[in-house]
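Hi W., the zinc ion complex you wanted:
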Amino acid sequence: MRQDASPKNNVFSDFRKIRAGKNGRRRRILRQLEPWVFERFMAFWRNLSSPENVAKRDWSKRAGASHEALLHCYTSRTDTSAAILGGLADVTRPEPFRCPYCLMRQPKTWDHFLAKEDFPEFATLAPNLVRACSTCNHKKLRHWTDAPRRVINPYHDPIPTDALLWCDVTVSQQNRLKLTYYIFRDPQVPDATLDLFERHFEAFELQSDMKAEGATAASSFIKEIIALRNAPLSAEELDEKIVAKLTGFEEFPANSWEIATFEGLRDCNGLLDFVNALVTPYQEPPPRLKRSEIKAKLMPKS
Ligand SMILES: [Zn+2]
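Structure:
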């Protein structure tokens, strides 16, 4: 859900460097596979906007050793491959540093956009590697890129700069805030993009995760604005506080859940009453008695 710059690695020399770090039989296999691997890299490039169209090779027939050698380039890190991945992690590190699929959690794993089990030749191909959180990586597994594709490619899909993730906030009859996240069908955005966004949103089950995070953020925000308050807020005051909060998210990508949540709060009709019902009205303390009055209370005249 966020546009990232595609890595600018020289993937051909990367492959050769990684190959050079391998021993004996694997190195020989990789050398022999090299022309084919480079051809596959070109096929990857030709299908950047529709990676689901890159044909899979059938690895089942006597190709076990080739499959293993290609996968080994990724699974068994050499100093060179570790350095390449480390460099890649640095250049794909946008602030705030979050997983591009969910924009919620810290990305600590490498997701192979085209799964390494099916496409071992792309196991170390920089533009096929997406720094993602482990939850998204696990949810994505192997088949999310099958047509119709269900995962947005952060490097190659055109992601509109306007927010498509929206949140409706309502106050329920039980007087609770209800948050519903969805993809806004912006008429200026092509249907195919909106459909992909919707499939992505469902595939990663973002609704439930965002509801949980959003509810926590909304309630701590409300606690914060009513703390030490003893008079109700005006509509303008409440709006100013939400806008101030939104200003703090300026560097966040347009589709982050924080922005959607606080825009939703801003448009929520019953929010002012909901917040003000939580404000404890100021009460006059009982007047202090004068000494003579205390005395009179303790020693009533007989
Ligand atoms: Zn994620």
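The chain has two domains: 11-140, 165-276.

W.
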